[in-house]
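Quick question about two entries, pasted in order.
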Amino acid sequence: MSGSFDVAQSLDGGVCKRDRAWAFIRSFAAGWGEPLVDVDSLTAELARAEATFGCSLPASLREFYALVGARPDLVSNQDPLLLPHEMFVHDECGGVLVFRSENQGCALWGVRLADLDQEDPPVLVQAQHGWVPFMDRVSLACVELVLSEALFGDEGRLYNACELPADLLRKVPEYFQHVPLPNYPMWTGPEDSPVRWFSAPGKLLRQDGLGAHSWLHARGRTRADLDAICATIPGRWSLGYTDPMSAEPLPF
């Protein structure tokens, strides 16, 4: 794989409909790793989950499971998509159907039971200050999930992170293209929000927060791509690109 796939270019114009989200995820999977194949592996599990909850899942959530359910490399590296039998209802906010969890249970993502009749309902995240709006649509949250999980793919071998000092904040939008996704809250708190994405061919970056000392997460399609990111943004990278004694600890 050449590593030429550019997330911002592929998402040019944004994600206006859920079909657009699924098309992007297919393109991303093929351009970043292995193409998706049509495998109807979770239909029975989804039906059992619906029977357990006594209601139908939103069309967008069913479609996402059908699309990526057989690909844990896309959805289960850090804060995974729950398998259908792992989904549960959280009793706050009138009931929230949880479909994603932070790897240690520190954050949850879900849809209010009252919104399950919508085809592509809004998503909430349970952060340190309770449940807050995350994305306006499930399909948008699914794109974010795939991108965030990609950061930690390949067992983290092509990932690095650093805190951005004030003098490096401008370099990210200067050298990398902003990915047209809505700003959204980081579950760790307001100081790490909003979250924004940037990219270049073969390079993916997530910036948590706007101010000095906000965290920048970087993933290269190849080692050369990751090295290029770290050279372009000369921060105190946490995983081997600076003296380990001077590097910042990772934020998780």
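Here is the second entry:
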Amino acid sequence: MVDTHTHLYDAAFSADGDTPADAVRRAIAAGVERMVLPGCTPADLSAMNELRSLFPTNVFLAAGLHPTELPEPELVDAQLAEIEAELRAGAGKYVAVGEIGMDLYWDKSRLEEQRRVFAAQCRVAAELGLPVIIHCREALDDTLAVLSALPQLPQGVFHSFSGTPADVARIRAIGDFYFGINGIVTFKKATLPDTLPHIPADRLLIETDSPYLAPVPRRGRRNESSYLPYTAARVAEALSLTPEAIGRLTTENACRLFNL
């Protein structure tokens, strides 16, 4: 299987004697043989690259400036330039631009700047021929507006997708996007299982978003890539398929999108 969104470089994996490398090894042992690690700021790049150097056939990288991690306004352009330079220098190592997007859940005060930063990174992705990993929280209208205005639309994935069938249709009307499903699908009151049949089978991905959103029965713990099979099993149940079939399907999809 492929975990298409995991922050295994996070400091949460360097506590209590654990290490990010240990988390990668546990994932591989659980059948999650490849992992895509998106960056959120330039500060993430060093730890991400260190982990890839240890597991070059298992760990793949993406780089971006996350909407909730914007620095002071006078530093934004410098950080964008740093990330773009890293993407250009790391051809073959970086499989996507991300995590990028729009987030109006925490802060609406920098809406215009979020739009500008998102659009700028989408343009870089299109120029480099890379997909985008999109974070969209309480911001679907604005996210789709930015994408619709781009001169060249990159392919990509709406990560941590938890929307409705109508949301799927709106996104698909804009472009040929994939949908990343994580532990939210296992939660007791989740409506996401009802949405899954509306996602084209060849545009379905699974992810953990670790260390966040641990699936049932691990909910409340630090999430990690080795827990991906729990999400795969719930997706399989919702689609009347076997976990093995979901593993094969989503692996094929991930390899297609990220050129793994």
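Reply: Residues 39 and 63 are 5 Å apart (CA to CA). Residues 111-128 form the longest helix (18 residues). Hope that helps.
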